[in-house]
Design a protein that fits this description.
Helix content: 10-25%
Shape: globular
């Protein structure tokens, strides 16, 4: 099952459950669920969701009548770097100056973790992501994102787009926050897949970029190429940090468009991870 946040008419954001055919949204506010984090803090939230999903009395709103929002309440978004071999190679290609550091972190025990976004800056599917005006080499980074509660329990999965300015980071690795953290640099959605087990290693992540109505780049990878396990990543993330409402963690990318490809305003980005769905964003200036 998949949770989402949505807006219907002029009402405040609500929590919903996407039906199996993704044609309707079940309004969970009628069942007393007003925030995702409150649900995830329940020890048996999956059992509660299964019970609620069988309640035929809850309103079912056509998906075409709602606006899906980023599936975030007040959770911070963090990210991991250099978790795929392709990502390591790409980061080393960006700059000879930084190559050794990226080579070492790929094989190191400690992962590269960095803060990505405040919750109010996260955009959802159908919204606009941005490229920096002071950068010349901008790319999307399609990633599986993990959803944790305050105890570090894995609650679900969603799709993330870790927008990046490769020329800024390549100039100096200390510029990573500027290359990664800016307005419109983080997208999550369309919903959160709730499951009682891990995703199969065969799960594919697909990226498609359309420009002027024509596909200008596609790429596919799978979770089999992800080097680090979720339990390893969350252990480091929660080691000396607390997250009272939980957090999101992007797990790195295995798809990097080759140089000199760079996003342009007006491009359309589609990232698909089945069975989560597709995260779609338009690139703004």
């Amino acid at each position: 099952m998949k949770l989402c946040r949505f807006r219907h008419g002029d009402a405040l954001p609500r929590v919903g459950l996407l039906t199996e055919n993704s044609r309707h949204v079940v309004d969970l506010t009628r069942a007393g669920i007003e925030r995702l984090d409150e649900l995830f803090e329940e020890k048996n939230f999956l059992a509660r969701l299964k019970k609620i999903s069988a309640d035929a009395a809850l309103p079912r709103i056509p998906l075409t009548d709602v606006a899906l929002l980023a599936p975030v309440d007040e959770q911070e978004v963090w990210a991991v770097g250099v978790t795929y071999l392709r990502s390591k190679a790409a980061r080393m290609e960006e700059s000879d100056f930084s190559a050794t550091a990226y080579d070492r972190v790929y094989d190191a025990l400690r992962p590269e973790l960095f803060f990505k976004s405040q919750p109010q800056k996260v955009v959802g599917t159908g919204d606009t992501v941005c490229i920096r005006r002071d950068a010349k080499w901008n790319v999307p980074e399609p990633e599986l994102a993990l959803v944790f509660n305050s105890r570090g329990t894995l609650c679900g999965f969603t799709i993330g787009n870790d927008m990046s300015s490769r020329d800024i980071e390549g100039e100096n690795p200390l510029y990573l926050p500027q290359a990664k953290v800016y307005d419109g640099s983080c997208a999550l959605g369309p919903g959160i897949l709730i499951t009682d087990g891990p995703l199969p290693a065969t799960t594919e992540i697909a990226l498609s970029i359309t420009r002027g109505g024509q596909i200008c780049f596609t790429g596919v990878t799978s979770l089999a190429e992800l080097k680090r396990e979720p339990r390893e990543l969350v252990a480091y993330l929660f080691r000396e940090s607390s997250f009272p409402t939980g957090c999101f963690l992007m797990t790195g990318t295995g798809i990097v468009p080759p140089a000199p490809f760079s996003l342009q305003a007006g491009d359309e980005i589609a990232i698909t991870i089945e069975p989560i769905g597709t995260l779609k964003n338009l690139v703004g200036g």
